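Thread: Newbie trying to understand structure tokens

Hi all, I'm a second-year student working on a class project, and my supervisor (Dr. K.) asked me to get a predicted structure for one chain before our next meeting. I've only ever worked with sequences, so writing a 3D structure as a token string is new to me. If someone could post the tokens and maybe explain what I'm looking at, I'd be very grateful. Here's the chain:
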Amino acid sequence: REVVLAAVKQDGGALEFASEDLREDEAIALEAVKQHGRALDFASERLRKRKDIVLAAVGQDGYALQFASDECKADPEVVFTAVKQNGASLIFGSRVLQDDKDILLLAARHFPTLDDDRDFFLQLFEQGQVAEGVN
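---
Reply by user tm_fold:
Sure, no problem. This is what the structure looks like when written as tokens:
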């Protein structure tokens, strides 16, 4: 256990090579996702439902949201944290949260490829000309 814990602290992706029992270990999974968010993919299904572990993962890499449980993908705090880290991660959130105006606006602010068009897009969005009908 201590060897795997030390390994995931150095490279969270090392969780992939841990035994099933160790992938189920909360402390090991948490250290792995804090170092490499997408290591959530290798955590047990039970741990992918744990909000604290998922929050640590998406805080490190918003794209880790794709490996979270459906419950976490529908949790506004989890999706907000993921989108704040990387706006493009919104595609992995629940449909309801994809339509949330505040989360959409946050995604636009943290979308890595908007660059030159970001200010224009935000202005249109704030004027209600983008994403009409969004709740």
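A couple of things are worth pointing out once you decode it. Confidence is low (pLDDT under 50) at residues 129-135. The CA atoms of residues 13 and 39 lie 5 Å apart. Feel free to ask follow-ups in this thread.
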